[in-house]
Design a protein that fits this description.
The chain has a domain of 170 residues: Rossmann fold (3-Layer(aba) Sandwich), CATH 3.40.50.720. The strands form two sheets. The chain has a seven-stranded parallel sheet with strand order 3-2-1-4-5-6-8, with helices on both faces. The chain has 286 residues and is of the alpha/beta class. The longest helix has 15 residues. The mean pLDDT is 97. Strand 1, helix 1 and strand 2 form a beta-alpha-beta unit. It contains twelve helices and nine strands. The protein is globular.
């Protein structure tokens, strides 16, 4: 059996590759990326590294040749991802891939106002319509990214959020990678959707309290509305308005309870408990 990973050049892709190397032989792995030179270390270990770009259907078909199971890691071109992912799904079908896994989002429904939701919904639909065996890996919000914000909150003494009293089970990127590797290297996952979350539901106030405990400094919880949150990201973080609005949409989704999914799927798949936000924050500070 040959296992492929599309989008292997990013942090999640590398994590999946490392997890696969713990489970299968290097010759059973195909890593597909826009820039194969970034994965030379894996090629030196006997892993096949191939060029494949979501915008190049022919290259994707060639990259997927001989692959039995393929993980599609969601692309980074926000606004174009449904078309790109659909192209990859079609290429996988034409190349003879039998089983497709995809990194989606928790609660990919119309009720979820997170800005990424429509693209994940569209991709899931394309996969279902393809007739291929499938597995959906519905990842929660990355705790790794949230930690960066908390480090800044420790510096400023305040944690600003627009999620209200809503809660989210932030998940470590490494746990997302481990779960994906377990699915790709294991059996019995066809036709299943897994919620890949952290082990606890935390609110914005909980995160501020955690930052205070870990740092030993008082970090105030500051709840604001969407407009103020967006303005803060633009004025103080220097983000473009569209990016700030994209980020703020996840706070809105959390506030409305759309990301309050708590699952034990990571432990079921990997045999290990997912990392806590405290562990991630302590590691980042170290």
């Amino acid at each position: 059996m040959t296992i492929g990973v599309q989008g292997a050049g990013g942090e999640l892709g590398r994590g999946v590759a490392d997890g696969l190397l713990e489970r299968v032989e290097p010759v059973e792995i195909v890593l597909v990326t826009r820039d194969p030179s970034k994965l030379e270390e894996y090629a030196q270990r006997g892993v096949a590294v191939r060029h494949g770009d979501y915008d190049e259907p022919h290259a994707l078909r060639e990259a997927y040749r001989g692959v039995d199971r393929l993980l599609l890691i969601s692309g980074v071109d926000v606004g174009r991802r449904v078309e790109q992912h659909a192209t990859a799904v079609e290429a996988a079908k034409e190349a003879g891939v039998g089983h497709l896994a995809y990194t989606s989002i928790v609660n990919p429904t119309e009720a979820n106002p997170a800005a990424a939701t429509p693209e994940h919904m569209g991709t899931e639909d394309a996969i279902l319509e393809s007739g291929l065996a499938w597995t959906m890996l519905r990842n929660g919000i990355y705790g790794d990214l949230t930690v960066f914000g908390l480090l800044n909150s420790i510096e400023t003494g305040s944690h600003v959020f627009n999620s209200g009293d809503g809660k989210c089970a932030y998940v470590a990127r490494a746990d997302c990678a481990a779960a994906a590797a377990a699915v790709l290297a294991g059996d019995g996952h066809e036709g299943k959707g897994y919620d890949i979350t952290g082990p606890e539901l935390l609110s914005g106030a909980d995160l501020a309290r955690l930052a205070s405990e870990v740092s030993g400094k008082e970090v105030a919880a500051v709840s604001v509305d969407d407009e103020a949150f967006i303005d803060g990201l633009v004025e103080h973080a220097g983000l473009p308005s569209p990016v700030a609005e994209f980020i703020a949409s996840f706070g809105k989704a959390t506030r409305e309870g759309q990301l309050a999914t708590l699952s034990e799927d990571v432990e079921r798949l990997t045999g290990s408990q997912p990392r806590t936000m405290r562990q991630l924050l302590e590691a980042a500070r170290a």
